[in-house]
Amino acid sequence: MMPLWVGPVARYMATGLVTTLALAVVSIAVSVVLGTLLGALLVLPSRAVRLAVRCYVEIWRGLPIIVTLFFIFFVLPVIGLRFDTFVAAAIGLCLWGSANVAEVVRGAVQSVPRGQADAAAALGFPWRQRMRYVVFPQAVRRAVPPLVGLVVNLTQQTSLATVIGVLDLLQASQRSIERLTLSSGATHAVPILGAVLVVYFVICLPLTSLSRRLERSLQRA
């Protein structure tokens, strides 16, 4: 027979799971779109543009995500910029994610053999068309495996949102443990945190498997 505490805890954690998934989807979507644009800017001929984007990338890649979250949620209100916990967490994750996506895209573009672009130039293609029709299509295939791995990492990093009070899966599990401890004296921490572990594993395992398959297919190509 299922213990009485399981049903309420499961429903409460399901609410946290919905928040976790929503935060992951928003962070991944914005990071991929913004990071791809920034990565394209990193290979522009303009040195000034590359330098500005490089500063953005190095700052947000270099800072721990938890520091960025604290800065956005606790420091920015001092200058009048206030965000609720979900928005603050999404902004922090998007800053980190877009910076890393930009670096992946830059590396993928620069990994395309230079002879490809030179051949297109010899055929009279201007720089923009060389990038659009020759370099970027090849770079996409090279960028996909590390991007999938980054998506997994970003999904896992959503658990850090709990430090600023986001009611995600981890926060819901912690509150459930605290409530059970106060009401019954038993934490039930092992099954609750075990369930959290299983949920993250189920979410991330297909993505990590996909990343490995894409890497192997790229090596065979």
Describe this entry's structure for a reader:
By secondary structure, the protein is an all-alpha fold. It has a single domain (6-220), classed as MetI-like (MetI-like fold, Orthogonal Bundle). It is 81% helix and 0% strand. It has eight helices and no strands. The chain has helices at residues 6-41, 47-62, 65-75, 85-111, 114-122, 127-157, 169-184, 189-220. α1 (6-41) packs across α4 and α4 (85-111) crosses α6 (127-157). The N and C termini lie far apart (54 Å). 31% of the residues are buried. It comes from Planotetraspora phitsanulokensis. It is a multi-pass membrane protein. InterPro entries: AA_ABC_transptr_permease_3TM (IPR010065), ArtM/GltK/GlnP/TcyL/YhdX-like (IPR043429), MetI-like (IPR000515), MetI-like_sf (IPR035906). It is found in: Cell membrane.
Q: If you average the pLDDT, what whole number results?
A: 89
Low-confidence stretches: none
Total count of domains: 1
What is the 3D shape? elongated
Sheet with most strands = none
Q: What is the helix/strand order?
A: HHHHHHHH
Q: What is the CATH class name? A: Mainly Alpha
Q: What is the CA-CA span between the terminal residues? A: 54 Å
Number of strands: 0
Secondary structure tally, helices: 8
Strand content: under 5%
The proportion of residues forming helix, as a percent range, comes to over 70%
CATH topology: MetI-like fold
CATH homology-level superfamily:
MetI-like
What structural class results from the helix and strand content? mainly alpha
Oligomer: single chain
Query: What is the CATH architecture term?
Result: Orthogonal Bundle
What integer value in Å does the Rg equal? 22 Å
Protein name: ABC transmembrane type-1 domain-containing protein
Family: Belongs to the binding-protein-dependent transport system permease family. HisMQ subfamily.
GO molecular function: transmembrane transporter activity
Transmembrane segments: 20-44, 65-83, 189-210
